[in-house]
């Protein structure tokens, strides 16, 4: 595994040094700093006003403690949290170099934008003012089902978007308007001129209905990737133009005024007045400010990269891939409905004709509204892994020996491939003296999620983002990487705004304004090799969606958007961090975890329940008693003098030597949360490398984008308008029956069917074949090609008679007629050739089952399948090198699914034991193999077959499926391993003189 870091890093750092004192007198001094006042004002105007009164000596003592506690929390954050937030922390660019030299300047700049609510309000006012000239576009979720036009709309209720699928009955006028508007922007005046035959008022009223119903949507609204005011439509309304200009000027003044400017307060007052006027209400936030710190020195030692790389590998080894539950459930449903078809994305997710995704389709009724009554069965037992048991040993040893930290040995876990990780990610870490690193986590999928938000206001960060996006796009040059454009809520734009990184955009409900916008009705979805892929029918290319934001899209209310984001995670872990796995809730104290090469992976952490904190909770109002009790408590649990209270992403510094801080702690304990989490502050124990000009150290995080070495990914997709019939319903020339039964009886049933369909004088058919399935239950799919549709009932009744004994005995549970849907996406124009081969293989398998009789697959005769596959390789190419290349590629694919080490051992043992028997089998069953070969020759006289890798692998896959009654994929993997050894041996023999 090689980790390749791009040259640019992002430094996130607190605005104050963590050496800043935070006692009562220190807080008073801090309040006299204008930057502190401005920071508090931006975060909370109400707190600013009350603190201003307090420190002026006008506030009653009754509220003093509460206000000082609030002020302390903000100042503790400003000195001990590196996550950018207003003016409390900022970011800057750093580069890999030869030495650690990172020096903060006292200077910084601000990047200010209006709140999304302000931007949307302005856009709506301009739309209203422009009247007939306001621009509109078609709803980008529009698709057709039967005679209905369907599209996704939303209502705003309590500032939240509530989504639904809306429908209009298609008619000539609607179809013509849709055809005219297309991908363009049209206003009402242009549409009137395009449709002159309609009475003007009626036509305008009709267009207004389409706008209100959201079939037509405003084309000039705030959009991801476009800063204020670029997205606004031009208008002749003087008042609105003056408002926009005034807002632009005020934001410019906020960005440029000096921190010591005594008039700073007036800028914010004017902005509040203006934004309240725009929106018609008072807003909590009128603008959003990002702080960008200036650096005097900006170099980080590149020799640290090897240590980070080792840490990433170790975290990957400690974190087994965790499948996405929504994706896995959807795979099962999709496979059952569509198998390997390519399906229009919008059709697949339609609420009436498509497939459920996640929990969105479980509609409440009168009887279930507000009821969450899941079945209460026996709690499932946790399966402890090998890693869990090793972790358990670490925790028990730490508990017995009262160890504050543990060191993970080099051989703690087995190496794991990084192929399950995204192509690019970001490492978040802190650096201290003596090159000690704290690797907090590795984020993904994709490095952009951590840096994109800050790229809008900084050219160097933007360049770093473009560099990593280019690396990924270059690794899959045939694919179309597309940014997912959607705002689940209007205000989400505040955190999702970023510049464009990818060449294309995939717009969903909200507008995309890039040069290459992909339409949703052009996107097809397909399940290929157990991975969902998207394709553009228009461009004939694979589409890879990307969400370049750290926004938690799981909060979204709509399945298509969630799915587009989910498929970024479908290959494995999207992020890495140290965790205690199944033990995370079983202990109170979790020690610090370090490596032997100077890397911290996990902070010492405590998880206290209310029962443990009960005595402290009772002493909350008695300050001295509380402090004494907590002193004893901290000694018992090894809690340091300074630590964090952790609540999700929020961390609050507690200093046991600070009276105000202890009051804050007491209040937190009395809240009696189910679990109160403490965590150590590593930066207070070690000297940080990030310092200011006076040498004061700062809490910080370095964000280092990197990517893995991966082979170029060749992608292919060709949407072919098949002229061949896809669906054959019951009563047509194909009879399709599903037989639900035990795998133990399957071969016996197949032999009875073979006797009827291949050897009976009474029943005449063209051909038949079977496939084994285990989705959702074990069953056989029997497909019979009739001579004529009129034979359907006769053949079905004959089959039913053959199956009757098995049904009466219960060995066959269910017989189900179904529609035969050809896998045209897998076999394309060669589907008839594939069906012919399936029929030949069915005859071959039934002859083998009849000859070997046993259903146990426990004799070497069953290795006959080896020669069936070898025959297919010979049909593809007689060149040994071509066969080797194909088999190596197939085996490598299967090793991503199975434990390659265990399977390799099995293959080695099988080959050593049976390789000498392979030629004997070839001779013993020569007649049977020759019969099959002659049938294939006859088929080849009728059809040309292109034995490309995709077609060949599918044919072999289905042959193995028929031959074995269980674990077909594992058998296929092992057979490719045996073939590889055999072919390599052949090559070695031919290479000898």
From TrEMBL:
Signal peptide: none annotated. Pfam families: Lant_dehydr_C, Lant_dehydr_N. Residues 33-665 form the Lantibiotic dehydratase N-terminal domain. This is Lantibiotic dehydratase. Residues 734-982 form the Thiopeptide-type bacteriocin biosynthesis domain.
């Amino acid at each position: 595994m090689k980790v390749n870091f791009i040259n640019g890093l992002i430094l996130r750092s607190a605005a104050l040094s963590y050496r800043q004192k935070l006692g009562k007198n220190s807080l008073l001094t801090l309040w006299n700093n204008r930057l502190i006042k401005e920071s508090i004002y931006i975060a909370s105007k109400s707190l600013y006003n009350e603190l201003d009164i307090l420190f002026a000596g006008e506030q009653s003592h009754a509220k003093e403690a509460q206000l000082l506690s609030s002020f302390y929390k903000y100042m503790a954050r400003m000195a001990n949290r590196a996550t950018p937030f207003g003016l409390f922390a900022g970011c800057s660019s750093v580069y890999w170099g030869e030495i650690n030299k990172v020096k903060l300047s006292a200077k910084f700049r601000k990047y200010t934008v209006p709140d999304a609510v302000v931007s949307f309000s302005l856009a709506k006012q301009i739309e209203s003012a422009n009247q007939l000239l306001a621009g509109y576009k078609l709803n980008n979720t529009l698709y057709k089902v039967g005679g209905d036009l369907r599209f996704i709309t939303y209502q705003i209720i309590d500032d939240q978007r509530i989504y639904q699928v809306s429908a209009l009955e298609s008619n000539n006028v609607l179809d013509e308007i849709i055809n005219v508007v297309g991908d363009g922007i049209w206003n009402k005046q242009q549409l009137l001129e395009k449709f002159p035959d309609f009475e003007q008022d009626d036509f305008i009223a009709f267009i207004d209905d389409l706008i209100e119903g959201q079939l037509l949507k405003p084309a000039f609204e705030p959009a991801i990737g476009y800063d204020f005011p670029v997205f606004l439509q031009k208008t002749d309304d003087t008042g609105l133009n003056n408002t926009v200009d005034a807002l632009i000027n005020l934001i410019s003044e906020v960005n440029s005024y000096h921190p010591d400017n005594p008039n700073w307060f007036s800028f914010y007052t004017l902005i509040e007045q203006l934004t309240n006027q725009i929106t018609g209400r008072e807003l909590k936030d009128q603008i959003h400010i990002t702080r960008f710190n200036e650096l005097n020195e900006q170099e980080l030692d590149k020799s640290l990269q090897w240590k980070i790389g080792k840490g990433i590998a170790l975290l990957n080894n400690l974190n087994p891939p965790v499948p996405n539950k929504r994706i896995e459930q959807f795979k099962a449903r999709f496979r059952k409905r569509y198998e390997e078809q390519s399906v229009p994305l919008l059709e697949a997710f339609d609420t009436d004709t498509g497939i459920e995704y996640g929990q969105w389709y479980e509609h409440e009724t009168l009887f279930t509204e507000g009821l969450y009554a899941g079945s209460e069965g026996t709690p499932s037992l946790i399966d402890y892994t090998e890693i869990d048991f090793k972790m358990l040993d670490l925790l028990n040893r730490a508990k017995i020996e009262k160890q504050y930290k543990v060191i993970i040995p080099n051989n703690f876990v087995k190496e794991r491939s990084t192929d399950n990780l995204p192509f690019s990610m970001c490492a978040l870490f802190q650096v201290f003296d003596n090159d000690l690193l704290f690797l907090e986590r590795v984020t993904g999928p994709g490095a952009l999620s951590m840096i994109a938000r800050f790229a809008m206001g900084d050219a160097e960060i933007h360049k770093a983002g473009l560099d990593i996006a280019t690396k990924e796009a270059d690794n899959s040059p045939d694919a179309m990487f597309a940014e997912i454009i959607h705002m689940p809520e209007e205000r989400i734009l505040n955190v999702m705004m970023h510049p464009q990184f990818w060449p294309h955009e995939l717009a969903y409900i909200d507008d995309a304004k890039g040069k290459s916008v992909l339409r949703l009705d052009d996107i097809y979805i397909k399940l290929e090799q157990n991975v969902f892929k998207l394709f553009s029918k228009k461009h004939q290319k694979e589409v890879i969606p990307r969400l370049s934001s750290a926004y938690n899209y799981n909060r979204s209310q709509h399945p298509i958007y969630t799915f587009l984001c989910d498929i970024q995670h479908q290959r494995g872990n999207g992020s890495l961090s140290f965790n205690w796995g199944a033990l995370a809730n079983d202990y109170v104290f979790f020690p610090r975890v370090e490596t032997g090469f100077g890397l911290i992976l996990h902070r010492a952490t405590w998880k206290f329940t209310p029962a443990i904190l009960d005595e402290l909770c009772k002493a909350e109002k008695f300050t001295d008693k509380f402090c004494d009790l907590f002193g004893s408590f901290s000694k018992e649990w090894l809690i340091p003098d300074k630590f964090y209270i952790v609540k999700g992403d929020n961390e609050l510094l507690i200093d046991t030597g600070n009276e105000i801080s202890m009051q804050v702690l007491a209040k937190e304990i009395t809240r009696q949360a189910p679990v109160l989490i403490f965590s150590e502050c590593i930066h207070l124990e070690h000297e940080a490398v990030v310092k200011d000009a006076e040498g004061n150290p700062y809490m910080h995080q370095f964000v280092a984008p990197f990517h893995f070495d991966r082979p170029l990914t060749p992608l292919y997709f060709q949407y072919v308008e098949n002229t061949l019939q896809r669906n054959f319903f019951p009563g047509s020339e194909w009879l399709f029956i599903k037989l639900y039964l035990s795998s133990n009886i399957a071969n016996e049933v197949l032999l009875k069917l073979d006797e009827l369909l291949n050897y009976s004088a009474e029943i005449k058919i063209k051909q038949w074949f079977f496939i084994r399935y285990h989705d959702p239950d074990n069953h056989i799919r029997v497909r019979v090609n009739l001579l004529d549709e009129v034979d359907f009932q006769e053949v079905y009744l004959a089959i039913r008679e053959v199956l009757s004994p098995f049904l009466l005995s219960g060995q066959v549970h269910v017989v189900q007629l179904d529609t035969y849907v050809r896998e045209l996406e897998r076999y394309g124009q060669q589907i008839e050739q594939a069906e012919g081969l399936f029929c030949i293989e069915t005859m071959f398998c039934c002859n083998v089952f009849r000859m070997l009789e046993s259903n146990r697959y426990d004799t070497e005769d069953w290795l006959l399948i080896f020669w069936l596959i070898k025959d297919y390789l010979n049909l593809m190419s007689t060149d040994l090198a071509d066969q080797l290349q194909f088999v190596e590629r197939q085996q490598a694919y299967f090793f991503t699914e199975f434990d390659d080490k265990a399977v390799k051992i099995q293959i080695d043992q099988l080959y050593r034991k049976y390789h000498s028997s392979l030629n004997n089998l070839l001779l013993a069953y020569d007649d049977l193999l020759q019969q099959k070969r002659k049938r294939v020759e006859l088929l080849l006289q009728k059809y040309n077959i292109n034995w490309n890798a995709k077609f060949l692998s599918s044919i072999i896959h289905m042959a193995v499926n028929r031959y074995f009654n269980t674990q077909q994929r594992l058998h296929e993997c092992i057979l490719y391993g045996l073939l590889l050894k055999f072919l390599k041996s052949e090559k070695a023999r031919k290479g000898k003189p």
